[in-house]
Amino acid sequence: MGIFTERGSGYNWVVTEVESGCEAVNKNEDHRIRLLVVDDDDDILALVSAGLANNFDVTTTSDAFKTVEFLETDAFDIVVLDVEMPMFRGTDLGTMIRGRFPKLGGILFTAYNQPEMVAEVALSGADAYIAKPFCLNEMAREIREVYAAKRGE
């Protein structure tokens, strides 16, 4: 399953057939990695949740303020944050999360793929960066790599 976007008055996210280089996400997982995905776009949250639910335990929120509440009350392995959200930038939220939850893996994703954005993401302390549009298997691979690195594998 792949995801692509078309520009117009906004972003139109569409689940498509497997694109070149976008194989199906592997369903064999010994440990179900627990994800918290934060994005202000409910369509993205629905697509990511549906696309990764067979392989990961996925919790989503469009409320950046609830992110810390979720992290304080539940045990997540990785938080995936959109960079551009109302009220909070994902990079700022990621920096705050990194300070409070240093063992938590952090992945940022955004439709803005300029060098300045990549540098900002690196300075935020994120473990990985995913540019939109993305394939769900690319996201799953990044999640597994960050999880393995955090566990020292």
Relevant terms:
single chain; 153 residues; five-stranded parallel beta sheet; 7 strands; disordered N terminus
What's the short story on this structure?
The chain has 153 residues and is of the alpha/beta class. It contains 5 helices and 7 strands; from the N terminus they run E-E-E-H-E-H-E-H-E-H-E-H. It is globular.
Average of the residue pLDDT scores: 79
Distance between the termini: 28 Å
Tell me the helix content: 25-40%
What characteristic shape results from the CA principal axes?
globular
Main sheet strand line-up: 4-3-5-6-7
H-E order: EEEHEHEHEHEH
Rg computed from alpha carbons, rounded to a whole number of angstroms: 15 Å
- Total beta strands: 7
How many helices does DSSP assign? 5
**Mind describing the biggest β-sheet?**
5 strands, parallel
Strand content: 15-25%
Could you name the ranges where pLDDT drops below 50 across 5 or more consecutive residues?
1-28
Structural class: alpha/beta
Report what the structure shows.
There is one protein chain. Helices cover about 35% and strands about 25% of the residues. With about 150 residues, it is α/β, with parallel strands linked by helices. The strands form two sheets. A five-stranded parallel beta sheet has the order 4-3-5-6-7, sandwiched between helices. It has a two-stranded antiparallel sheet with strand order 1-2. The radius of gyration is 15 Å and the shape is globular. It starts with a strand and ends with a helix. Residues about 1-30 have low confidence and may be disordered.
